[in-house]
Amino acid sequence: MVKLGQNFLADPNLLEAIVRDAGLSPDDVVLEVGAGEGVLTERLAEVARQVHVIEVDRGLEPGLTGVMARPNVNLIWADAVRYDLAQLDPDPTAMVANLPYSVATPVILHTAFDLPSITSWNVMVQKEIGDRLRAGPGSKTYGAPSVLIQLAGDVRQVRKVSRTVFRPQPRVDSAIIAIKRTGPGPDAATRRLVRAGFAHRRKAMARSVDMVHPGALKAVRAGLEQAGLDPGIRAEALTPEQFAKLSGMIDLAADDRT
Hints:
Layout: E1 8-9, H1 12-22, E2 29-33, H2 39-47, E3 50-55, H3 65-68, E4 73-77, E5 94-98, H4 104-114, E6 120-126, H5 127-133, H6 144-150, E7 153-161, E8 166-167, E9 174-181, H7 188-197, H8 205-212, H9 217-226, H10 240-247, H11 252-255
Parallel strand pairs: 2-3, 2-5, 3-4, 5-6
Antiparallel strand pairs: 1-8, 6-9, 7-9
């Protein structure tokens, strides 16, 4: 399972803390990505109405028979990054998971964009990923994922996690982060602008966007000026709110000549 980027939690106290920190109610429907050995799933099933679990590794199936037998656990064998989350029924209201390192960022963003029913996340991630998601403008770790998730919710670190609580022990530190939804998240146009703006982060934002969407240079510069910003500003200097405002002034689809 290591090749798929998942390390199993071996500390029952931490498992209890994750569930407790999530603040779940008996009415909650939880989404978990990465079943592992099912130890977190079992605890979630004890406190939530329903648990949807998405796991890609069928090799784990023999060890999950007990979890699969629970009436309120729906185990789905699929790649969570590509899975159509709209199929989940009932709609998840919370996400709690020990996320596989290799897919943590895309999974969090996928759920934020495509599952508006989720109002909170309490997830274990590589500490570097958690730092990136909660980074602010001007930080070296501030980038497209930071902007996109912060347009959907408030991100904070709940606790640092020692690598010794995992089996096998990873080479990196981990952290539990909590996200509380504050809005629907960025629309497709904003996501396009943010990703293009950070595509060449050493260049001015307008130039970076133009390199991804040829012909957009003048429109982005004009939008920046209209927003009261330096047309030569870099993406890393804009707040998430400024990106959202700017996207409403620019039609990348119309300016994209590729």
